[in-house]
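User: Some background: our group keeps a shared notebook of sequences we're curious about, and every so often someone picks one and asks for a predicted structure to add to the entry. Today it's my turn. The entry only has the sequence so far, pasted here. Could you supply the structure so I can complete it?
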Amino acid sequence: MEKILRKINLLMSSLKFKSFIVLFISILIISFFLFGIREFQSNDLQIKLQPLLFKDKKDLISVTVNVNTGLLIKNFPQFNVIENKFVVDMLVWFKFDPEEISISTIEKFSFENGKITYRSTPDIKNVDDKILVKYNVLAELNCNLDYHKFPIEDHAFSIILVNNFVTPNEVILNVITSDFVISQDIFIPGWKVKSLNTSFGIDEDPLNQLDSTKKTAHPKAIFIMNLEKTGARKAFIIFLPIFIAFFFALLSLFLPAQNSSGRSKLAASSVAALLTYRFIIEGMMPKVGYFTTADLVYGVLLTFAFIILFLHVVITKIFNDLSNPTIEVEDKIKLSKTKSAAIKIINQLHLARDILFILTSVISTILIGYFILM
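Assistant: Of course. Here's the predicted structure to add to the notebook entry:
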């Protein structure tokens, strides 16, 4: 049994074994990131509209004014995902029967979570027995974006068209996915359009907390643009430096207990680099009140770097006491009645170092993988 423990101890302390562990966890973490980037991950909040039915289950479209609605996005003068600020240059059109609803009512449309800064005069055309009304619109929008997966997140950018001057009993904004179009000339740096979706229906808001019958409702049409990242540049900029700094802390566990200066300098440099770089990446991150993937990964690396630094401080203190024995240590050695006590303590320090190296590598990799893939 002792021979087996000695072999395990020699294996754990060998340079080849530790180098293999570092290489293995590096490949594993890179794989986590590649998998996380390739998978479409959007946790953005989507409004759930009520179905178009009366209380007696009659189809609301068949008994109210049905206004066909469409949207063409021509350009994004501003597209800032980090600050959640978007300026959209678009064309909005409506097709309806002029005998059922007037143009003055139609043009009272607006966008939820945004404001229209420019609205052109209506371009009106007759199409069969209906009219087609088009508006060139410039709008500033904010979206319900979720940044929990930042910087490897994707987003569902929603444009919510609403008319607050009519009720669902009067008008329904009917939209199909083929009527949502994006100009082929649009270029969004760092993003590409994965797919387009639409939905329409009724959005109800309560007017009284105790009486559920008191509520207001308006017709809405939602145009959803699913966006995915085109590369890993931002993730690379954020994560690569902090992982390099963390590996300096791991490398400090390669050194023997006698090299107190080298161990402490490597560990302290790792902690200092992680703390300093935090101020740099703060400007790249969204201003949110919850932890993102970047925050969680950074927290894991900084925590284990501090643990490694603390261990080195303890090892250095014990080793210095052995090198310059105090009365207390001399008394302990005398009590042990063996000159090998100091060597045993140093071996135990090496064992503690090797165990910490394995635990740090395994636990940090598991946590990072969980935070990336969850």
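Suggested note for the entry: The chain has eight helices and eleven strands. The radius of gyration is 32 Å.
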